[in-house]
Specification:
By secondary structure, this protein is an alpha+beta fold. The chain has 20 helices and 21 strands.
């Protein structure tokens, strides 16, 4: 029996079925051929994109952040190249021995490393930023697939804590977080570059695919700060805080002619080069952000208001009893004098006298002078978070509030705002716009607040504050005439004025014949029995002013007879609601 005679082996199909099957097979081959031709001949983008996604990478080239310097070119912030460690989770394979070695190199515990490497992400992630050069060399020598080093820039601050509150700092991504680093982020940051590369399956770079787009270097920034004066302010403030066991404090130094901020120091401090364990308290720029009731430092503005309207003259005599009642408020003087001139009211910091002067004005007239002087508005420095303080609308004032504002209660200011306001007395009635950046004098247009005559008369009153009989005798600077005003205010705690917590302040200028510098000082909660502004803040002013005048080479305008008073300060408690 041959093969063809067996029935079970015969293929018994109808001819039309054979034809149909053949057509289906041919159609399938045609579809596959057309699809292959479409993908590989007409539209290659899809497959090319899939391939590129595996082998090609777009790399970001970090931009070199611009430098920050003081007005003389001394470096305050500079970027240095560093290496950081990154991981590709799809390629990362670590043996137990390699894990232990890597943890030791990075100074991680095994648990910390496991937690870091266990991140659930599709893209690469950072393991440690930055790593030291020694760590980078040891990691490279390990040759672990999936781990690679990336060149980045880290910010370094040569002045450290001395200028930290002004310069601020950046985060790990080199983005400004505080200070001028944040305020001028766009200018300093520059623009990142781009680079496209092709890698093999082990992550090794084979070639560059597109031309490199270079990163654009950030712009440099020259601040108005004078680092020498900044150091003086930092040093003297720290010494005063330690001496009086105070909670904190601030110092502001302004150039009266240009509005430039030559120094701004705060306590407590922080080190911007140590970015671990940051605490928000020490990082706060108290001089710009914190507000306080100015106490007697507001009294020169009361005098200016009544002089401007011709209600009194500097030699006008007022009855100033020991106490004076306004509504249910009893205003008291610590060292009463039955009769005082307007100049003596400022010199001796009489609360009763200041209230009688202020009550001769309507609330709107008094408010207008305070508002023109900049109270209730941001000082315009451009610093992040600067405050406007608090100055309520005059229509809401009650008589007792009208009275207490005369000696600095019921309104709030920042130290920068208060020091700026004193510029009107230093500049014969004009206030210059503030600046943290170095500027040229010809660029500045001031705003008139008082007439030149009124400004000079009030400046003369403030000069009397630093002379015999005044509350600011410890603010004298040998060889220079000094004008200023002391302030001592009770602190508001839980809605009530604490009887034993004070803010001690002094704002002054020199040389008084033609002021160049204005310095504001505030000390928060001095202890140890000494709390008057003239005794606590005054010596800080004197030391910083004396050294700054010498630093700038300003000629003396007084004989070498004015010396700082060194007698033991009075320990008499301050009057309720104010004092020197």
């Amino acid at each position: 029996m041959n093969y063809h005679s067996r029935k079970l082996l015969k293929l018994n199909l109808a001819p039309w079925r054979m034809a149909a099957l053949g057509c289906l097979l041919l159609a399938g081959f045609a579809v596959v051929g057309v699809r292959a031709f479409y993908l590989q001949g007409l539209n290659t983008d899809y497959l090319q994109g899939k391939g590129d996604a595996v082998s090609n990478r777009n790399l970001t080239l970090p931009a070199h952040r611009g430098q920050v310097t003081d007005r003389h070119g001394q470096l305050l912030a500079i970027s240095t190249p560093v290496e950081s460690l990154w991981a590709r989770p799809d390629e990362l394979k670590l043996s137990a021995a390699e894990r232990a070695q890597l943890a030791k190199v990075l100074e991680f515990t095994p648990q910390q490393l496991d937690k870091t490497l266990a991140r659930k992400t599709r893209g690469e992630f950072s393991v440690r930023r930055p790593v030291t050069p020694e760590q980078a060399a040891r990691i490279t020598a390990m040759g672990v697939p999936g781990l690679h080093l990336r060149r980045e820039f880290r910010r370094y601050y040569p002045a450290g804590e001395v200028a930290a509150h002004v310069v601020g700092f950046t985060n790990v991504d080199d983005i400004g977080q505080e200070g001028v680093e944040r305020a001028y982020q766009d200018w300093l940051a520059g623009r990142e570059g781009r680079r496209q590369i092709q890698r093999d399956r082990r992550g090794n770079t084979i070639r560059d695919l597109t031309p490199i787009k270079s990163a654009q270097v950030g712009g440099n920034l020259a601040l108005s700060l004078d680092l020498n004066i900044q150091y003086l302010a930092h040093r003297e403030l720290a010494a005063a805080i330690a001496q009086h066991k105070a909670k904190g404090g601030s110092v502001v130094v302004l150039d009266a002619k240009t509005g430039e901020i030559l120094a701004l120091a705060n306590q407590p401090i922080f080190n911007p080069n140590n970015r671990r364990n940051y605490q928000p308290g020490p990082m706060r720029n108290r001089a710009v952000i914190d507000t306080f009731e100015p106490g007697s430092t507001i009294k020169p503005f009361v005098a200016a208001a009544v002089l401007e309207r011709g209600l009194f003259a500097p030699g006008s005599v007022l009855e100033t009893p020991e106490t004076w009642r306004v509504g249910n408020k009893l205003v008291r003087d610590v060292h009463p004098h039955p009769r005082m001139t307007v100049t003596e009211i400022i010199q001796k910091s009489s609360n009763v006298g200041a209230v009688k002067l202020a009550m001769s004005l309507t609330p709107q007239q008094f408010w207008d002078v305070l508002h023109r002087s900049g109270f209730g508005e941001r000082p315009g420095s451009g610093f992040p978070g600067e405050t406007a303080g608090r100055l309520r609308d005059a229509a809401t004032w009650k008589p007792v509030e009208h009275a207490t504002m005369a000696y600095g209660y019921g309104l709030s200011v920042s130290l920068l705002q208060l020091t700026r306001a004193y510029m009107a007395f230093a500049n014969d009635g004009e206030v210059m716009p503030l600046s943290f950046l170095r500027r040229e004098p010809q660029e500045i247009i001031g705003e008139r607040v008082f007439s030149p005559a009124v400004a000079r008369e009030v400046r003369a009153m403030m000069e009397a504050v630093t002379q015999e009989g005044g509350t600011g005798q410890r603010t004298r600077v040998p060889g220079y005439r000094v004008a200023g005003k002391t302030g001592t205010a009770h602190k508001l705690v839980d809605g009530r004025y604490a009887p034993d917590r004070y803010l001690s302040s002094f704002v002054g200028m020199a040389p008084a014949s033609n002021p160049r510098l204005i310095i504001g000082v505030v000390i928060d909660e001095p202890s140890g029995g000494v709390y008057y502004g003239g005794s606590v803040a005054g010596p800080v002013f004197a030391q910083v002013m004396a050294a700054s005048l010498r630093q700038l080479g300003l000629p003396p305008d007084a004989p070498e007879t004015a010396t700082r008073v060194t007698q033991k300060p009075s320990l008499v408690p301050a009057a309720s609601g104010g004092g020197a």
